[in-house]
Amino acid sequence: MKLKMLSLAFFLMVSVQGVFAQDVTDEELKKYAVVMDSIDNMKEDLINAISEMVKNNEKVSAARYNELSKIIGDEAKLAEAEAKPEEVEAIREILKFKDDGTAKIQETFKTLASEYVGAAVFNKVKKAIAENADTKAKYQELLAELNKEDS
Predict the structure, then answer these.
(1) Rg of the chain, C-alpha, whole Å
(2) pTM (2 decimals)?
(3) Which of 33, 73, 83, 92 could form a disulfide with 78 if both were Cys (CB 3.0 to 4.6 A apart)?
(4) What's the pLDDT tens digit per position in 77-129?
């Protein structure tokens, strides 16, 4: 009797999950994919801009940036590393640019998720992608198409 009840409970749970996963329309999935692709593009642009700033910086070399950026908040370690004031200034400028860019990406993400897709739909699609292999596969196909368009 317990085995039948467990089997029935399992069957119902799997059936309910299937219903929720099917609840995502192609249009909702496409909007979600557009948002995620847009955010990924913004992140890539920010990373490229930061890389260019580091490469082309006359005040600090790329190697020195990598070394000092890890300790920029610790005055004692900066002194130990013999960081020059112009190096510290350059790193702080780059990190401010990074922080400003990150904040812009986060704000854009929030706006797109809530206004373009809708918060409830966004969360529903995100959950469906995480829980349903077919939905995830469709999403990955949409992203691949969007990436082709970006190129």
Answers:
(1) 23
(2) 0.78
(3) 83
(4) 999 999 999 999 999 999 999 999 999 999 999 999 999 999 999 999 999 99
Chain centre distance of CA 53: 22
Helix 85-111 vs helix 26-55: crossing angle, to nearest 10:
170
Long-range contacts, 126-132 (Cβ 8 Å, 24+): 126/32, 127/20, 128/20, 128/21, 128/23, 128/24, 129/32, 131/17, 131/20, 131/21, 132/17, 132/18, 132/21
Q: What is the DSSP string of 39-79?
A: HHHHHHHHHHHHHHHHHT-SSS-HHHHHHHHTSTT-HHHHH
At residue 81, the 3 state secondary structure works out as coil
What are the structure tokens assigned to 119, written together?
Answer: 């918060």
Alpha helices (H) in the chain, listed in sequence order: 2-22, 26-55, 62-69, 75-80, 85-111, 119-131, 133-150
Q: Which amino acid is at 22?
A: Q
